[in-house]
Amino acid sequence: MHPQTDTVYYTELDSPIGTLLVTGDGEAITGLHMEQQATRPVMGDHWRRDDQRFRETREQLIAYFEGKLKQFDLPLAGAGTGFQKTVWAALQEIPYGETQTYGQLASRIGNQKASRAVGLANGRNPIGIIVPCHRVIGANGSLTGYAGGIERKQWLLAHERAHMGR
């Protein structure tokens, strides 16, 4: 039996950076959003809470926040353009606890002049934390914008650095 295509499944998870909203289509994760995030979707009648459907996601997120998980292994289906998906795939290659600049990321995807476009794609990443857009920083080392808030970006980077060697 195939899930209804218009149904949005979701779960919520308390974390050290606030309540996380995880959404999915029944097959893969389509979003991970933080409280007060501008791009956080509004729940509608077609939304169904299903914590069991997200059991593995919840377990991996808990392990990440405990410093025990460094690489997520989950099916992802963030909606975006081909370029955005290329950027999001490149984000997943940035090692845990490390950062790259927008320019470095642009070079890695084969277009060193696209750092501004990379920044826009990074900002539209619908699956925060799991697709680690928090690991991208400005050319001068500044944290720059983060849809979840700069304080959360600081927390995530400090958390990863603190658990790198474990």
Give the topology, please.
Layout lengths: L7 E6 L6 E5 L4 E6 L12 E3 L5 H11 L16 H10 L8 E2 H7 L6 H9 L12 E2 L12 H14 L3
Parallel strand pairs: 1-4, 5-6
Antiparallel strand pairs: 1-2, 2-3
Helix pairs in contact: 3-4
Low-confidence parts: none
Rg estimate, integer Å: 16 Å
Q: Give the SSE order as H and E letters.
A: EEEEHHEHHEH
* Strand order in space, largest sheet: 3-2-1-4
**Which percent range describes the beta-strand content?**
5-15%
* Biggest sheet architecture: 4 strands, mixed
Q: Give the termini distance in whole angstroms.
A: 42 Å
Question: Could you characterize the architecture of this molecule?
Answer:
This protein has 166 residues and is of the alpha/beta class. The protein is built from 5 helices and 6 strands. A 4-stranded mixed sheet has the order 3-2-1-4, with no helix packed on it. Strands 5-6 form a two-stranded parallel sheet. A hairpin with a 6-residue loop joins strand 1 and strand 2. Helix 3 crosses helix 4. The protein is globular, with a radius of gyration of 16 Å. The model has no long low-confidence stretch (mean pLDDT 90).
Defining key terms:
about 170 residues, two-stranded parallel ribbon, globular
Q: Summed up, what is this model?
A:
The protein has 166 residues and is an alpha/beta fold. Helix content is 31%, strand content 14%.
